[in-house]
Amino acid sequence: MERIEHRACFGGWQDVYRHHSSVLDCATNVAVYLPPQARQGRLPVLYWLSGLTCTEQNFITKAGAQRYAAEHGVIVVALDTSPRGEGVADDPAYDLGQGAGFYLNATEPPWAAHYRMRDYVADELPALIEANFPATDARGISGHSMGGHGALTIALAHPGRYRSVSAFSPIVAPAQVPWGEKAFAAYLGHDRAAWRCHDATELLRTARERLPLLVDQGEADEFLATQLRPELLREACTRANHPLTLRLHPGYDHSYYFVASFIGEHIAWHARAMKG
Amino acid sequence: MERIEHRACFGGWQDVYRHHSSVLDCATNVAVYLPPQARQGRLPVLYWLSGLTCTEQNFITKAGAQRYAAEHGVIVVALDTSPRGEGVADDPAYDLGQGAGFYLNATEPPWAAHYRMRDYVADELPALIEANFPATDARGISGHSMGGHGALTIALAHPGRYRSVSAFSPIVAPAQVPWGEKAFAAYLGHDRAAWRCHDATELLRTARERLPLLVDQGEADEFLATQLRPELLREACTRANHPLTLRLHPGYDHSYYFVASFIGEHIAWHARAMKG
Q1: Chain B residues with CB-CB distance to A250 below 8 A
Q2: Under a CB-based contact definition with an 8 Å cutoff, are residues A224 and A217 in contact?
Q3: Are strands B75-79 and B12-21 parallel, antiparallel or unpaired?
Q4: What percent of chain A has pLDDT over 90?
Q5: Across-strand partners of B144?
């Protein structure tokens, strides 16, 4: 892992590393915030998955999470939203290809060669972080929009892997909304049975673990009714008797101003679960 | 004033307005954070001046100041760093022309027509804010790098106008460093006597008001020795018996990660002075 950024922040360090991912078969960037407590011992790790068009930079520059990570003694890892590079398949649209990996393992050409974000997030990256940083194996996962979808589906599909999961403005039912239908058809093909393991509302039907879900959603979010549809998550959790805290916030939109306003409560919530 | 952005943030609103400035003789953007307390009554206003290459966006997306403004009940106004537009003189360099106004009133062609940031900051903008928002006339001023220079010089040159002033990584002696020498020669001409009223260390010689200065500086700042030289501010304050709190922070660089780490303490300090 080559360190390409190193900046003091709230008494700790906001670093960015570049490494070759064998799962993605390309180089990728990963941001690691080490709070001041990392000098004294091993700490739990919160993984952050960003939304469409983002890189590892959006969260670390805009969310203001470092303040809370330093307060609670949590390492925060923010990753890119897809494989990238010249040899990696892409599409001119903002919602497919590079910057739009949807945190799944693609099975269709030309995507299958590199687009394996689910395995990267759930397996390769935690192993790398726990081997190279003062990290325990207590893991939390969160994200925004497409990244909220990633956090919910990856946590639900890997019982025992995470102590806590939360999401901001997640795509809760990608198999039923335009962003997800387009991406899943491209990455997974047209057989909708293969989509189920990448849809949080479907995964809740068979979830073996009752990991409580914390979800924040802005009521002025421009994608609320067409792409996000939090009521489908509420119905799925009610049906499955799965614990859900869904908070609807009047006035808030889909931007990082919303994430910044509530990331402190999410980090406190993850810290309690990961240290408990 | 036309509102062009309106985003809920920490219980208040991060807005951006566009208006025609008669001082700058062009349209300009100004960001206004209204904390939740603005619904109940008039509040003091902290003016933020950004550094080279910035617009009104950098501070509002990266500094995380809204959390503290909401905590302390302070309106925060962040402005652009120069006049802009097709009819406004410019230079291809990053440190002259648009994005590099240096918070002065230019006297030399082609700059004198629009580059009047000092009068815009000190006169036109506060009048506009106090007429259009629930603002008192208690004003504070702060900024980063070129904006730290702007905050210090404008406060020192306008006794009674501000209740508080602070700066992050300021250019404290522009007449003695490359950034300032280049800009002042272009904007003010080669007679160095005309530069004095735009140099904080020179203004301290004749300051009529003992407004305490709070200055934070990172020791790993890449511009520390060549452009910023905080020791010259310390010497000028000692010579003038002017109150200065200069804090040097090991490890911190020139980025917004540094500003974000300490902006909370600055806002608390301004709030105490503006409400006291």
Answers
A1: 8
A2: yes
A3: unpaired
A4: 99
A5: B168
Is B251 at the interface with chain A, CB within 8 A? Answer: yes
List pLDDT tens digits, range B165-178. Answer: 999 999 999 999 99
Cβ atoms of residues A204 and A243 within 8 Å: no
Verify cis geometry, omega within 30 degrees of 0, for the bond prior to A110.
Answer: yes
The span from the CA of A161 to the CA of A159, in Å, is: 6
- Beta strand segments in chain A, E: 2-9, 12-21, 26-34, 43-49, 75-79, 135-143, 164-168, 213-218, 244-249
- From the list B62, B220, B261, the residue facing A10 with the nearest CB is B261
- What is the reported pLDDT for B276? 82
Q: From edge to edge, which strands make up the β-sheet containing B2-9?
A: B2-9, B12-21, B26-34, B75-79, B43-49, B135-143, B164-168, B213-218, B244-249
- Tens digit of each residue's pLDDT (9 = 90 or more) over A194-241: 999 999 999 999 998 999 999 999 999 999 999 999 999 999 999 999
Handedness of CA A181, A147, A94, B56 (dihedral sign): positive
Q: Determine contact: B81 vs chain A, CB below 8 A.
A: no
B76 to A121, B22, B68, B73, B273: CA distances (angstroms)? 39, 22, 10, 10, 15
Candidates A261, A262, A265, A267: best to mutate against B (most CBs of B within 10 A) is: A261
How far is the alpha carbon of B36 from chain A, nearest alpha carbon, in Å? 13
Minimum Cα–Cα distance from B57: chain A residue: A62
Write down the pLDDT at residue A276.
Answer: 82
The separation between CA B249 and the C-alpha centre of its own chain, rounded to angstroms, equals 21
Do A62 and B62 make contact, defined as CB atoms within 8 angstroms?
yes
Mean pLDDT of A105-128: 98
Tokens representing A91? Answer: 């599409």
How distant is the alpha carbon of residue B241 from its chain centre? 24
The per-residue pLDDT for range A131-157, each reduced to its tens digit, is 999 999 999 999 999 999 999 999 999
For residue A62, the distance in angstroms to the closest alpha carbon of chain B comes to: 5
Cβ(B269)–Cβ(B239) under 8 Å? no
Q: Is B169 a known active-site residue?
A: no
β-strands B75-79, B164-168 pairing: unpaired
**Six token digits for residue B114:** 């629009």
Q: Are A171 and A221 a contacting pair, CB within 8 Å?
A: no
Give the per-residue pLDDT at A140. Answer: 98
**B69-107 residue pLDDT tens:** 999 999 999 999 999 999 999 999 999 999 999 999 999
Contacts of A185 by beta carbon, 8 Å cutoff, 6+ apart: none
